[in-house]
Amino acid sequence: GENVEQHPSTLSVQEGDSAVIKCTYSDSASNYFPWYKQELGKGPQLIIDIRSNVGEKKDQRIAVTLNKTAKHFSLHITETQPEDSAVYFCAAPASGGSYIPTFGRGTSLIVHP
Amino acid sequence: DAGVTQSPTHLIKTRGQHVTLRCSPISGHKSVSWYQQVLGQGPQFIFQYYEKEERGRGNFPDRFSARQFPNYSSELNVNALLLGDSALYLCASSTRTGGYEQYFGPGTRLTVT
Lengths: 113, 113
What we know:
heterodimer; A: 113 residues; mainly beta; 5-stranded antiparallel sheet; globular; B: 113 residues; 4-stranded antiparallel sheet
């Protein structure tokens, strides 16, 4: 099965700084890599994703980069705001017909005003 | 459009009892997946259903079962509850099995005493 490692477990930044969260995966056949944001008391919310035929994808202040050779992908948040404070999860699917993702352990991002 | 809905939001049960959790997917989504999220960890896959058929099962004991109805809603059943079953149970829907974009509901918080 897939093994996903996520770092760091906690990230504290000042408002306006950038934040980077990294994940590594083990299944070289994995081809879809989503990132989720989970606020307290809520379910995870899909914020950005990338497929294996693309190296980078941006959506306003959020970007994801993928290095298939090294089997790692990263979430980049620029110009952080206090409302970005949440737990962020990466995920990667095991290869096969059905989409069954393995999630990282999460990164608690704290943005100080 | 309404998102994924889950009921109940909170539940307290005693060891040995059984529980039924319910999920309604986003309109038009035919696939439902169930996850268990223990505090401080990422969601862990339990089941995936598509068109009323089980398409994937995670590493959970037979005490866990699920089904999907003709209207694509789903139930997760857990028998002989253990203290370790205390967790947030999340339901996610997608357009199809292998449809990677998953949208999560708010979850059901289960506490076993």
